[in-house]
Amino acid sequence: MSKKRSVIYAVLAATVVLAGCSGKEILTDPVETAEEAHQEQEITLWTFPVGNWGNLTSVSGLITSFQREYPGIRVNVECLTYDDGDEKIEEAIKKGNAPDLVFEGPERLVADWGARGLLVDLSDLWDSDVAGGIYENIRKACRHSDGAYYEFPVCMTAHCMAINYDLFQEAGALQYIDQETHSWTTEDFVKAVDVLYDYTQKRSGVIYCKNQGGDQGTRALVNNLYGGTFTDEDHSVYTIDTEENKKALRLLKDLKGIEFDPDMSAKDEITQFCNEELAMTFCWNASIEITQIVNNPELDFDIFPMTFPVSEGEPRLQGGIWGFGIFDNGDEGRIQAAKTLIRYMTEKDSSYKRAVLTSSFWPVRDMDEVYENDLFMTEYSMFMQYMGDYYQITPGWVEAREGWWKMLQKIGAGEEIDKAVEDFPR
Asked: pTM for the full model?
């Protein structure tokens, strides 16, 4: 491991420890409009694994601080995984006991549960001065076409990919990446894979498609290679069947060293990359690297985050946005208690900073010194400039997302690309 990376990891380790510590964070201006929330209420918060928002200890620390200010509100927390989290929530919905709060992104909160009329409109939360400072592209992603806001955001990131720097160096493939900008061209991507293949690295990368987990990586790879898009600019139709996208799929299918694997999940792909079985991963971001550093003591090579390769212009990285949504369980007291928790986590800078640090991502509004003197997060912050269009709120997103990985499975099984693309749901 390089000295540079060792220093970054040392600083990161300290950051992770601090982020997990609990402390008293008092909201100095309690919300006057949520009278019911000050009475005895018991609510549930289910969180997907967004950084340490998927760690029960870390989330409990945040909730403990909240309950010091609002002792009458008891919050029961359950941490979900992306393997079965959707199934658990759907089962809870069927049984009439959906969680009060969910911490996730617009593709679920806005385009799915919100669109189905299951969530509370949070427009009143968006009337605050703090909400006025949220970036416009984030605001748009949290608002449904019916005018309702089904999410109040906390953090964001731009997903990227990563390479095994040591292996690239040994194979002579570093010449094909721009180490200063962490970027490369499609032509150089192909050359690098060829060099790695000749170096005996027969599996450089895998198009994983067992399920929808991590599918932002494979979509960004395909869209960037030749300038394709996933939807139109108005987010009204899906544009998978363009020549740019089909050209990219053909390249990946024909390139020695890249394989389609219908039995591999994104989680499996990350594991194989960290075990040095793959030269690159298409499912990466700062939070994933932090998790691997903390949980994988055997990790002993230099990970180098990269943009996806492009034929021309700048890369467009798939953005991630995460925040709170509230299920409408018909109990106004619980709804107000849930809104009180959201206000506590987002309105005061000190508590909001802790919420962002727990995610290992970036704030959705201007905030200074969130990652001051943090070399690791400074490195990843460069990718935020490449955050592309947030198209996951396009109508039919649930069907399109399923159609994407099933389409990749068909290609991996040998189906002609034109036919597989043609069958993609519009």
From this structure: 0.79
